[in-house]
Amino acid sequence: MTTSSKLIFLGLDGATWIQLDRFITSGKMPNLKSIIKEGTKGILLSTFPFTSRTSWLNMLSGANPGKHGVPHHIVGGKHEIPLVHNLLSKNNIQSIIVNHLVIFPPEKIKGIMITGGFSTPPSSKNYVFPRQLYDEINDTVNGYIPALDPSIITKIEQGEIEEAFQQLNEYGKKIVKTSLYLAKKYDWHFLLTILENTDYLHHFFWDKPEYLERFYIWLDNVLLDFKKLAEANNANFIIVSDHGFGPIKKHFLVNSWLSSENLTKLGKPNQVRKILNKLKINRRFVRKSLSIIGMREIASKLTPSELKKMVPIDENEMGFIQENSSVFSEAYNEITVKMDNPENYEKTRNLIIEKLLNLEDEGTKVVKEAQKREDVFSGTFSKRAYDIQLLLNEGYCWSPLIRENFFLTSKELKISRVGDHRPEGIIIAIGPDIKKSHTLSKTYFHWDICPTILHMMETDIPSYCDGNLIREVFMEQSPFFTKPISKKEISEKNF
Amino acid sequence: MEKKSVKISSKLYNLINEHIQNSKDEFNSVDEYIEYALSQIFDNEMNSQYSKDEEYEIKKHLKDMGYI
C-alpha cells in the first residue's frame, strides 16, 4: 500500500442543486449548509445519453463511453477498462464499496464489494465479495436489500404513495447502515457508497414536496454521519451525482414522431390486436392479472412469443416497431439507424438530426442537441453506441411509446414519472485537503473524477483517461495541490 | 498469431465480401471480419452476466423506469 490518504466518496444518483439549494435555503439541511461552508462545491456535468449506467462508468473509469465500452443504459454491458477500485486494488489499496450500481456480479478486489441497484437482480444472493460476509451484512441490517423490488412502481401507480416512500427509505437506510458498519469494523482507504433512492425520488416524487422534504431531512442526517466518519479518520469526503434532474412537462414519443415524418414505418395492429386494445387487454394488464394469481413467471415461460406479440404493448398503442425497421428509438435519448449503404445511412442521419433540431411544440424547441455517435464518443467501442444521441430541452422526456400524438403529458400517458434526468449534477467536497468556502471556477465533467481520486490515492492515472485532475478543489497547503500528476502510459486497447 | 482454417459456404463468403466492399467498416478481408464477429459472439457467451430470469428482472426494471 502506497498511500496514507483516506477518501470517503458518496454517490447520490440524480442529485441536483435545484432541490439541495431549496432545502438549504428553507433551513431543512443545516448539515449540508455547514459542509458547503467548510468545503468546496460545484457542478459536475453528465454526457450523452445522460443515464446512470454510462455516467457512473464515465466517472469511475475516467473515460468516455467509447473507451469504457458501455454507451447505453440497456441490459448488460461490462466495462472494458479498469474502474477506480480495480486500479486501487492493483496498487494494494483497500476499498469498501457499498451498492456499486454498474457492476454485477461483484468483482474480486482488495477489500469488500457489494453490488446493487439497477444492475443487480432483486432476487440475487450473489452480490457480496467476499461471499463469507453475506450473512454478517444481512444480520447487521436485518435483511439487506440489494435492489429495489419493482413493485414500488406499481404501488406509486396505484396511489400507495406512503408505502412506496417507506420502501424507498428502507432501501437507502440499509445501504447507509451497512456502509457505516463496514467502515467502522474493517480497514479501508477508499470508501465508496452510492444511494439510488435520490433517483427514484426525483422520478416519482418531484411533484410531492412533503415527501421531498422528509427525504432531504433524512439525507442531511446521513451527510452528518459520513462527515463524522471522515473526521474520525482524517479523511477527505466527496459527494457527487451522476446527473441532475428536472420536472417533466411533456413526453416526446420519438417513434411516433419518426413515423409522422415518414422516417420509419411502424407496424399497424392487426384485427386481434385492435379488439384486445378495445377490450383494454394489453401486456400491462395481462402481466398485472397474472401477477395477482401468481402465474406470471410460468405463463411468461410457457407462452409462445408469436402469441405474446398479438397482445398490444400498452393501452392506446397505435403501432409497434417492426423487426425489419431501419429507423427506430428503443433506448433512452437514442435513435437507431440501420442501413448497409453508407450514403443512405449518412443522408438519413443528417435528415433526422436536421428535423429534430427544428422540431417545435407550441413554439418551444424540443431538442437541445442531436449528435452523431462519432461526434460525441471516441475510442475502440464507439460503434456500440446508438447512431444518433439526443439531449432534449428542459421539460421534455424521451419516450418509446407509440400514440397518435407525439407530445403527451404524464397524465395523458397514464404514467407516474414526473421527473427526468438533466445534465447538471453536483459535486461537494470537504476535508483536510479541501479548499474552504470555495465554488469551483468552472464546470467539470464526470470523467474528471477518476483522475482526481487516483491522484488523492497516490495511484498512477492511466494515459487513456479523458478526464483531468480537479486541482482547484485542494487548498494550496495540501500536498495534492502541488504534487505533479503521475501518469501511466497505457492504451484502453490493452485490456 | 497462429491461424487455423475453417470452412464456410461460398454463398456466405460472397455476401460478407460484398458487405466489406460496400461498407466503410475497417475490415480488410473476410477472414478479419469473421474473426471479429466470432470473437464478439464468444465473448458475449462467456461473459454472460445474468441468468434468463435475472435478465428478465433487469429488463422489466428498465422498462418500468422508462429507459427502454
Q: Which sheet architecture does the biggest sheet of chain A show? A: 10 strands, mixed
Sheet of most strands of chain B: none
Which stretches of chain B are poorly predicted, pLDDT < 50 over at least 5 residues? Answer: none
Strand content of chain A: 15-25%
CATH superfamily of the largest domain in chain A: Alkaline Phosphatase, subunit A
The average pLDDT of chain B is 83
Count of DSSP H/I helices of chain A: 20
What fraction of the residues of chain B are assigned to beta strands by DSSP?
A: under 5%
Q: What does the average pLDDT of chain A come to?
A: 94
Fraction of residues in H or I helices of chain B: 55-70%
Structure report:
The complex is a heterodimer of chains A (495) and B (68). Chain A has 495 residues and is α/β, with parallel strands linked by helices. Chain A folds into three domains: 7-247 and 421-494, Alkaline Phosphatase, subunit A (3-Layer(aba) Sandwich); 249-268 and 321-416, Gyrase A, domain 2 (2-Layer Sandwich), CATH 3.30.1360; 270-317, no CATH class. Chain A is 37% helix and 18% strand. Chain A contains 20 helices and 23 strands. In chain A, the strands form six sheets. In chain A, strands 1, 2, 3, 4, 5, 6, 7, 19, 20 and 21 form a ten-stranded mixed beta sheet that branches. A four-stranded antiparallel beta sheet of chain A has the order 10-11-15-14. Chain A is globular and about 70 Å long. The model of chain A has no long low-confidence stretch (mean pLDDT 94). Chain B is mostly helical and 68 residues long. Chain B has one domain. The longest helix of chain B is centred in the middle third of the chain and has 17 residues, at 30-46. The relative contact order of chain B is 0.08.
